[in-house]
Design a protein that fits this description.
Number of strands: 14
Helix content: 55-70%
Number of domains: 2
Low-confidence stretches: 1-9
Largest sheet: 6 strands, mixed
Oligomer: single chain
CATH architecture of the largest domain: Up-down Bundle
């Protein structure tokens, strides 16, 4: 995929990809409600523009009354002015309210879309296997989606407001400056709509210069989120492994690593603020100078009596509104650059997910009606293509008890992934039964943040099992101290020891009662007596379940009827099945 740094502000495929991203929400079931909120937001946005037109007219009346010293007309116009201001405040407040209500609905729909694409299809795992350049997908879903939606709404509605403002005030400005004449070298000249042409010239010049100065913001804005996310993740990893760091007295090393990540944040921040400084000098200069331009142009007409003071003030207001509308791109440039960077990160994330879906797995997974797991001429490889296992064929029938043994780094855990159907590298076929519940327990179980009831029920949702059953399973796994804490919400992986985490994972086995159970060193923290008691409990509670255990030490073999021994040889391994 082309690097975002090398792309123009709006590349060749930009609008096609923008539509693909935008339509995700606008074809969803929530789209009608969102369309209603969008219609209200647009109506109130246009209402603010119309309010500005009315306020400009009332201000003309105020200044004309002051010039004519007409007290009655002045206070009459003043009362109308305050009434308009009250209505204007309500319209302006609800304009923001409806925009934010739509923003959260749109963000909710897009977040659900990305979570589904990342999690449901297994892309989260395949992205890691294929080493795709998708740094911090959690940050892209949480922050880039938020920034994209907020900027998309803000920019589109502000652009609509700019167009409506231009249309509304352009006629006023043209009419006010349509009869202006000036003398030069003894001749009289007239330029119809003089202030309109001044506004066009001024906005065109400022837009061109702003783009020349500010275009570096697009690539610079691509990196801050990634650098910030990397730094934050480094700190989270430190907190999650606080005990291991404390044992090794590795605080200084961890601090230096965190500072290394933070240096990237600081370096990019320096580039960003320098680019924004240069842009701010240009935009602020043009903005301040622009406030004087209409007065300089209108002053001669006022001095020659062709314009009243009120007309001058109305012309000034109209010029500012027209000029602001014409320089929308200038004023929104920083926001556009941030929005463009968020889009690039979402585009690349989407493309990476789609790439993983298009990958054809080399190992074929087939579902059959037979209650048998069958490996047929299986070859297992690393992502690099190096062969780990070759020519493996074998079966595991319902109720079999099989232990997979072998030295470290002999691809026992990789074979575990093959059984789970999540390892695509290689060739051959794995036949899995259509019926029967499968449960896989890795050495380090996943404990979701939430109540202990949620953690014990995983991967089933909370409420699947009665509290009495959960407490019984915890007590059978010697977790009595936690049996009364089902409603507690904690980071359980930090609160529990490694052995307690494995006990909780095995309590899930008793709750789910799988027909096929795969254990990848799931009892590695147990002593021999505890491990023996678990396998006895397993035989008692799930006598008909097939159990496949990956283990290092031979003691586990006594709880199984069959043994698969992996033996490395000449860079790859063979399996002896007994």
């Amino acid at each position: 995929m082309p690097n975002a740094r090398t792309r123009a502000l709006f590349g060749r495929h930009f609008f096609r990809r923008l539509w693909q991203l935008t339509r995700v929400y606008w074809v969803s079931p929530d789209a009608p409600a969102g369309a209603g909120l969008l219609a209200l937001a647009i109506s109130f946005e246009l209402g603010v523009v119309y309010g500005n037109v009315l306020l400009a007219q009332v201000q003309r009346r105020l200044f004309d009354a002051m010039q004519d010293k007409d007290t009655g007309a002045f206070f009459q116009a003043l009362s109308v002015f305050f009434g308009l201001v009250l209505v204007f405040l309500v319209v302006a407040a609800y304009r923001i309210y409806f925009r934010q209500a739509l923003e959260i609905r749109w963000r909710r729909g897009l977040t659900d879309h990305y979570l589904a694409g990342w999690m449901r299809s297994g892309a989260y795992y395949r992205l890691q296997l294929h080493e795709k350049e998708t740094d911090n997908p959690d940050q892209r879903i949480a922050e880039d989606v938020r920034d994209y939606v907020a900027s998309a709404l803000g920019l589109s509605l502000s652009l609509l407001s700019a167009v409506a403002t231009l249309v509304s005030f352009l006629g006023i400005l043209w009419g006010l400056s349509g009869e202006w004449r000036f003398h030069l070298a003894g001749s009289e000249f007239q330029i119809p709509g003089l202030m309109v042409w001044v506004a066009l010239l001024y906005s065109g010049l400022s837009t061109w210069i702003t783009h020349r100065v500010g275009r570096r913001l697009v690539p610079i804005n691509f990196d801050p989120q990634r650098f910030e996310a990397d730094f934050r993740y480094c700190l989270v990893r430190f907190r999650e492994n606080a005990e291991a760091v404390a044992f090794s007295r590795g605080e200084e090393g961890a601090r230096h690593m965190a500072l290394d990540f933070f240096r990237s944040v600081v370096g990019n921040w320096g580039l960003l603020i320098r680019a924004q400084r240069n842009l701010s000098l240009v935009t602020t200069g043009f903005s301040q100078a622009n406030g004087v331009v209409p007065l300089l142009v209108a002053a001669p007409a006022f001095f020659f009596g062709r314009l009243t003071l009120g007309a001058v003030m109305q012309a000034n207001i109209a010029y500012v509104q027209v000029s602001s509308a014409l320089t929308w791109f200038v004023n929104a440039y920083v926001e556009i650059a941030r929005w463009r960077a968020s889009l690039e990160r979402l585009f690349s994330f989407t493309e990476a997910i789609e790439d993983t879906r298009r990958l054809q797995p080399g190992i074929e997974i087939v579902r059959t009606a037979e209650p048998v797991i069958r490996l047929v001429d299986l070859r297992v490889e690393l992502p690099s293509g190096r062969c780990l296992l070759d020519g493996v064929s074998g079966t595991i029938a319902a109720g079999d008890k099989v232990v997979v043994m072998g030295p470290s780094s002999s691809c026992k855990s990789t074979l575990f992934r093959v059984f789970a159907g999540i390892w695509p590298f290689g060739r051959g076929r794995v036949e899995l039964p259509e019926k029967g519940k499968m449960l896989f327990l890795p050495q380090q179980p996943y404990l979701p943040i939430g109540t202990l009831r949620t953690a014990a029920s995983y991967p089933s949702p909370e409420g699947t099992f009665a509290d009495e059953r959960i407490r019984e399973a915890l007590q059978l796994m010697d977790l009595d101290a936690f049996a009364g804490r089902l409603d507690d919400r904690e980071h359980w992986e930090q609160l529990m020891s490694g052995e307690e985490q494995q006990r909780l994972a095995l309590a899930r086995v008793l709750l789910h009662e799988p027909d096929w159970l795969f254990l990848d060193e799931a009892t590695s923290t147990f002593d021999e007596a505890t491990e023996e008691r678990f396998y006895e409990l397993l035989a008692e509670r799930l006598p008909r379940a097939a159990v496949v255990s990956v283990a290092h030490w031979p003691g586990v073999a006594q709880f199984h009827e069959r043994r698969w021994t992996i033996t490395p040889h000449d860079g790859k391994a063979t399996i002896e099945m007994t």
